[in-house]
Each structure stands twice: as C-alpha cells, then as structure tokens.
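Form 7-S
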Amino acid sequence: MPSGRYLPGMQIALTALLVASVAISMGVIGSEFVRVFVSQERPPLSRGTLSRLIGEWAALMLLTLSAPLALLPSWPRRPITAGPAQPPVLLVPGYGLHRISFIPMAAYLRRRQNRWVWAVNNPSWRDDIAAFSCALENAVEQMRQQSGSAEVDIIGHSMGGIVAAHYINTSGAGIVRRLVTLGTPWRGTRMHIFGIGRQSRSLGPSSPQIDAITPVAAPVTALWTKTDTVILPTDHATFEGATAIELENQGHVAMMFSLKTMRAVEAALSSGGEE
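Output:
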C-alpha cells in the first residue's frame, strides 16, 4: 500500500484531474450550444454528434495531460528512408495548444511521404502573432539548413495558420511551397472573446491582423468543418483564393487526430505548389 505521506499528493493530482475533466466537459458542451445558436441549426442528438463531442473531450484531455512533455527539447525528424526529395514539413499548433497535438500527423507524414517533419511550439512567454511569426521563421531556417531543402511546407492548426500566413507575407514568400490549415480563423472568429491576451484579440473578425493576412503569398489549402465549435461562423475557416476542403463531423481539436484529416493533408501536400 502507498505510504501515508504520498496520499496528499495523490489526492491533489486526482482532484486536479477531476477539475480539468469537468472544466473541459463544460467547455465542449457549452461551445456546442454556442455553435448551434450561431448557425441557427437544430440538429438531432445523434450517435455521430455524441461521438464528435466525446472525441473533442478526449483530445483536449490528452493535450492537457501531455502539456509538460511539450516543454522537452524537440528537433527536426529525418525521413525514414532515402528516396525522392520532398520539401520538409513544419507543423504549427493553435491558440493554447502545443506540439504534442501534431505528433500523430507528423508520424503519419514521415512514414507515408518520407519527409523531414518538425512539430514546433509557439513561444509560451510571448503574446503576439508577430513574435510567433519570428519564432517560426527561425524554425524554418533551421529546418532548411538541416534538410538541405530550399523550400518547406507548413501545416497550421487554428491560430497556427494565421502565424504561418504572417510569416509567409513578411519574409517567407518563395520559401514556403504550400500552406495547409486546419480550422484556421481566416476571417476571424466570434469565439475570440473567450480567449486571453493580444493573440486572442488578434483573431476577432475585422481585427487589423485578420484584415491584413490575405492574400497569402503562397498557395493555401484550408480544411474546415461545419461542426467546428471554435471558428464561428464556421465558414470563416476559409477565404476566397484558398482551396477549401470540408471535413464531415469533426471537432476543432480532435480533427488533428483524425485519419480523414491526415489523408486530406497528405493529398493537399502531394498537389504541390500549383493551384
């Protein structure tokens, strides 16, 4: 049996886990109600809806528990085997998330497309889209140096797509071959009011950052879903000039773990830099 001195620590950990679980559950359910209200839909409570909400809850719980692991050092991963050269891929997480969210997709692309891959973090000590963009520029240069490739592809989830677009438009034109975004608020999101700090305010509809982000100086494929509870209205996850791909019944965070999403990203990257 565990020593009595360990029991308080276990109780604190279990209490924290319970609080996180309840908070995430309330957030998932509450954001679903907001989405239904904004879209003026009255969808029936179906097995698909329950599956999506449970998947979103599970994804958020996983990323909450794995957050300490995201602080460990990371580096670009080499292709598994020697083969035809393809541009390396950098994966940029969204608001409040971290690189662990992209580990399954990074592993999928490394195995399926035999690429250099690197899931990076946004700087946790900064609160500015431009600062995140500068950090991404440094990561791109490190990836180019290690891989020997002149071009890179970028995958951005949510705010990560805005960070990537900012980098492309300021210094990455001609370096980024293609940008693929997952649930990125290209035209802003009303849900920005629930965020904290300047980066959240930057994601509001008609914010200066949103107004200035398009057109993007690289081809963009925007993956979006009508069941996104963070990007509202949901069609703000794409814009005129992007190649839009709709994903069926996906959650905003859980889409990163979906095999359907990974296959769509793989197809978008395989299309090259041409529209």
